# Entry
Amino acid sequence: MKKELIQSIREKEIQLAKLREHVDKSSVCSDLYNKVVLEKAILKKELENSQKNTFMQRVINLVPRKKTLICDYFRR
# Structure
């Protein structure tokens, strides 16, 4: 998943480099450039969130719970 996101981000960067030359020439290229910028931002956010989630899960697993919660009784 992480490798796929990184690969997609690289592809978007290549597309942006190619479109950057033609942004001023037509509105279609400008719109396409803006769309690719948004897609790249979304992919970066997904990558960032995937890294945060794994870090949070590690922290949650390391911190021992001392109190017994009501929800613990209903899990069994």
In short: The two ends are 33 Å apart (CA to CA). Residues 27-62 form the longest helix (36 residues).
